[in-house]
Design brief:
mainly beta; seven-stranded mixed sheet; four-stranded antiparallel sheet; 11 strands; 53% strand
Length: 117
């Protein structure tokens, strides 16, 4: 079992920065990811990072602005979000999978990010 606890959401003006954190308990996930869901839209994968940190994925709309990273000593994943845009407004969820190629079946409670124009 893995429990995920997120923090760091909030209200920010466009062009600002926020960092989301997600601490995993009990076990070290193979991959961790950030998803987001905006009102009226489907959930989308924002970024994903797997063991060794060599496998990193970003959705096109955040490339060059967001950075995902892991601190293995703290068993925590971060999402540094720079140059925020109103379209980044969403509830952000941390997720984890314990096995390579597995589904993301462990989820955090979600943290809201609101970007004002």
């Amino acid at each position: 079992q893995v429990q995920l606890v997120e923090s760091g959401g909030g209200l920010m003006q466009a062009g600002g920065s926020l960092t989301l954190s997600c601490a995993a308990s009990e076990r070290t996930p193979y991959c961790m990811a950030w998803f987001r869901q905006a009102p009226g839209k489907d959930r989308e994968t924002v970024a994903r990072i797997c063991l060794s940190s060599s496998t990193v994925y970003y959705i096109d709309s955040v490339k060059g602005r967001f950075t995902i990273s892991r601190d293995y000593a703290k068993n925590t994943v971060y999402l540094q979000m720079n140059d925020l845009k109103p379209e980044d407004t969403a509830v952000y969820y941390c997720a984890a999978t314990l096995v390579r190629g597995g589904s993301f079946n462990y989820w955090g409670q979600g943290t809201r990010v609101t970007v004002s124009s």
